Description:
CATH topology of the largest domain in chain B: Aldehyde Oxidoreductase, domain 4
Structural class of chain A: alpha+beta
Largest sheet of chain B: 7 strands, mixed
Distance between the termini of chain B: 53 Å
Number of strands of chain A: 14
Oligomer: heterodimer
Number of helices of chain A: 11
Order of helices and strands of chain A: EHEHEEEHHHHHHEEEEEEEEEHHH
Number of domains of chain B: 3
Number of helices of chain B: 19
Strand content of chain B: 15-25%
Bound molecules: flavin-adenine dinucleotide
Shape of chain B: globular
CATH architecture of the largest domain in chain B: 2-Layer Sandwich
Strand content of chain A: 25-35%
Helix content of chain B: 25-40%
Number of strands of chain B: 30
Structural class of chain B: alpha+beta
CATH architecture of the largest domain in chain A: 2-Layer Sandwich
CATH class of the largest domain in chain A: Alpha Beta
Number of domains of chain A: 3
Strand order of the largest sheet of chain B: 3-7-1-15-12-13-14
Amino acid sequence: xxxxxxxxxxxxxxxxxxxxxxxxxxxxxxxxxxxxxxxxxxxxxxxxxxxxxxxxxxxxxxxxxxxxxxxxxxxxxxxxxxxxxxxxxxxxxxxxxxxxxxxxxxxxxxxxxxxxxxxxxxxxxxxxxxxxxxxxxxxxxxxxxxxxxxxxxxxxxxxxxxxxxxxxxxxxxxxxxxxxxxxxxxxxxxxxxxxxxxxxxxxxxxxxxxxxxxxxxxxxxxxxxxxxxxxxxxxxxxxxxxxxxxxxxxxxxxxxxxxxxxxxxxxxxxxxxxxxxxxxxxxxxxxxxxx
Amino acid sequence: xxxxxxxxxxxxxxxxxxxxxxxxxxxxxxxxxxxxxxxxxxxxxxxxxxxxxxxxxxxxxxxxxxxxxxxxxxxxxxxxxxxxxxxxxxxxxxxxxxxxxxxxxxxxxxxxxxxxxxxxxxxxxxxxxxxxxxxxxxxxxxxxxxxxxxxxxxxxxxxxxxxxxxxxxxxxxxxxxxxxxxxxxxxxxxxxxxxxxxxxxxxxxxxxxxxxxxxxxxxxxxxxxxxxxxxxxxxxxxxxxxxxxxxxxxxxxxxxxxxxxxxxxxxxxxxxxxxxxxxxxxxxxxxxxxxxxxxxxxxxxxxxxxxxxxxxxxxxxxxxxxxxxxxxxxxxxxxxxxxxxxxxxxxxxxxxxxxxxxxxxxxxxxxxxxxxxxxxxxxxxxxxxxxxxxxxxxxxxxxxxxxxxxxxxxxxxxxxxxxxxxxxxxxxxxxxxxxxxxxxxxxxxxxxxxxxxxxxxxxxxxxxxxxxxxxxxxxxxxxxxxxxxxxxxxxxxxxxxxxxxxxxxxxxxxxxxxxxxxxxxxxxxxxxxxxxxxxxxxxxxxxxxxxxxxxxxxxxxxxxxxxxxxxxxxxxxxxxxxxxxxxxxxxxxxxxxxxxxxxxxxxxxxxxxxxxxxxxxxxxxxxxxxxxxxxxxxxxxxxxxxxxxxxxxxxxxxxxxxxxxxxxxxxxxxxxxxxxxxxxxxxxxxxxxxxxxxxxxxxxxxxxxxxxxxxxxxxxxxxxxxxxxxxxxxxxxxxxxxxxxxxxxxxxxxxxxxxxxxxxxxxxxxxxxxxxxx
Lengths: 291, 774
Ligand SMILES: Cc1cc2nc3c(=O)[nH]c(=O)nc-3n(C[C@H](O)[C@H](O)[C@H](O)COP(=O)(O)OP(=O)(O)OC[C@H]3O[C@@H](n4cnc5c(N)ncnc54)[C@H](O)[C@@H]3O)c2cc1C
């Protein structure tokens, strides 16, 4: 029987070297709330586990001139405890605080949530709507990509062997911007999104929406950017007509499957319902930001 | 059907008296600290030196002939100490026995724990290994080559009843039908319960409503997975530690299946992490013993959650047709139920138990209940808390509401007008004794819950439930210790922690000593005579009666000691307030002797004091309850939110009131889970799609509203403390209550379970396509 190795590097270089050595069957471990569950269920059998929690770059939350940067292995609870971050990014926190229970969030990271590449990952739609990018290092060096380019399908990412997400960057948003995320689950918590909607919208001084981004979770193989849905808001005061158009466009953008978690029709319908509800929260936050 | 009460059973009449311990909440539950500090030992916590890990290879097919099994590669793997399959277990003839509340057939039991000719469900065991580590055991499973011939399968009960359905058992001829059918079918048996003349009853009715209902299979959802540790010694004895509701039944099943003498098998029940009817059956125990026998080492086996869902007993999914006839005045004249129940891969659903409950809450002269027990490619169903009854109540109680609405009679009123009471003739045989059903309905009427205002999209539901209390063989020994404490050794597994508390209260009350001086300890199978399993709400009632009997027996022994010390006759001594006293002043001037004094002197005056009970308890009092629930329906998503819940139930006598309420809560929460989201989902290959708590959605704490409880006490006349079973009744009404509340809120009748958001939304859309988009 082969044995599984467990390594705890303290620098990025070491981590990248270990992963490059480990070839295909090495696994990055952050909070482990996906990895350990998958191992327990015999879905994965890694030969090498590289725990990245002791690498300082992955654990910091820093306010930079152009925005906020937070380490990929920062836990949900660490973000929830960071007052300024929470105030600045309520939409992101809507998503983060929905992940599992308090115990789960004590371990779970946004990096893990993004890299696990579940279409239903709760932090992802709001991150996409906020225009977040990821800083990645690997054997070939460093690169920055938008968050939506990480997941390529359920459980699949664009990361190459040996690559690690180091941090996420959230660019400062324009004044009058509000973001929100909501999901629908049959249970009130400890459940997986049947549909998730993240919206970020910016209002001009006249109260007219000048830009918007809508991202939908759990309705396709990866989180979707619903451009037509965003367009339905731009140039409006986010009134009833705009919301109706948003809902219709969000529903139209869905490419869901039928599965044990919901039927196609149900997901399509609820995507529109949620889009409307989320837009109203984002609107309230955008207005709040101005007052 | 079901288990017939013995004519030689024990009943001790109810005595009204002032109580010191029974009926009040003890300061602390004796099991609580060890449980919350992690010191309580569940089956998976028990280890023996040198033990191996056992793992089961399971069929990935819903239905397949097993052509061959080749384990040679697995046997060669380093660290593998034994591999077993069908050839290592003796075949069994047709032989029936009671396993908890439902009957088993040993021919089928051996085939359930290890497939023989065919794999009959996804997850059916086909082989097992014991190895020095879990990873080696898992690797070994992958090396076992099983050649399957995949056969067409059938999952749904209605499909399984069709004449062209794939047959699970090619020789299965429906029992209970005249004339005997010539062709085999998946309908294993038909059972009928009737009263009066059903045709005439419907003729007398002014209104007849007939509705069809479908419910999905659901799991008991115990948090603790099945776990067993076994050792088989060269001397030919087997010892097992296991997670069970009934160690004596498990012992009997093991002995039968492995062709051993009962005396050679010892079973110790570990602390139980939930059973709810699902832990009355052997699964891992015989496999662990055979693996131990083959390897010469102890073998421990623990199921994963996936295995628990796929291969341990859920309750039946059902198709039910309810028909009720009523006069304009509101008198029910006839009631009929057709119950089509999944039994899983072998016959034996809970129909024999739940058919009697179908209409027993109401006084109806003409009743017909027809039950069809239907095999399909699913795990063999087992009992689940009031087995089979919640689904019937789902139908009956929603039809009751429809009738009430149609006749313009208040929903509680129509139930009161037809309520069963003392003297009501049941459709399963006996007339009812004193019961508290009307009291629960009256209490509901008066409850402040009924006055709470409802907002838009909010509604209130009402439903009722009935379940009988089982008696059966019950044993206990009460040892009076030298220091004046008492140890009750009980044989009914304490399934939730409350029983040992209640037994201690009863013993303390009987002996007249403080609660803290009594400790109730779970027996293994060697320390007491046979005890039936903890099922049918019998734990506190039957075990409590044994505790009374054993206490009174010990009191007689203590009085004997006092008589010897005082040199008087036994009948000149009485027991009062924890002391032996002279029966009257004529006996002589003697200082009363305390229990502690007698215990200290007993050795010299005849020997250690112990009291015994080996009885078959009969006369268990039927329990009735009424539930109220308020819900709010989100018209856009179909989500049903519970706002408030109230449970009112007759407990006969609540020995430990807080714990009775906890039983109400626990059962209702399970019923709520059943109502809202819980269901077995199978894919097109007959493979379970949701074998885990993520997608098998039991409710979480935040899904549950505040639950009010009200205990009604109409004593059971056949029990010394008036106790009725309480654990099962409260899971019966929630399905119906919630369905009725949804109707009250948004005007749709949910007849398909679960009432999950997609189903509710689809029903809303169907009811009002025009307004849905609004
Ligand atoms: C009980 C429970 C409830 C849950 N509820 C939710 C929920 O409500 N919503 C939700 O979205 N999720 C939920 N999850 C899933 C999980 O908690 C989240 O996806 C979590 O964010 C994963 O983070 P982690 O740090 O634990 O990741 P890990 O398990 O450590 O890793 C997840 C994946 O990402 C990879 N990875 C991790 N970090 C990096 C990195 N920096 N660079 C490259 N690859 C990396 C790992 O190799 C692995 O493939 C739940 C899980 C459990 C056990």
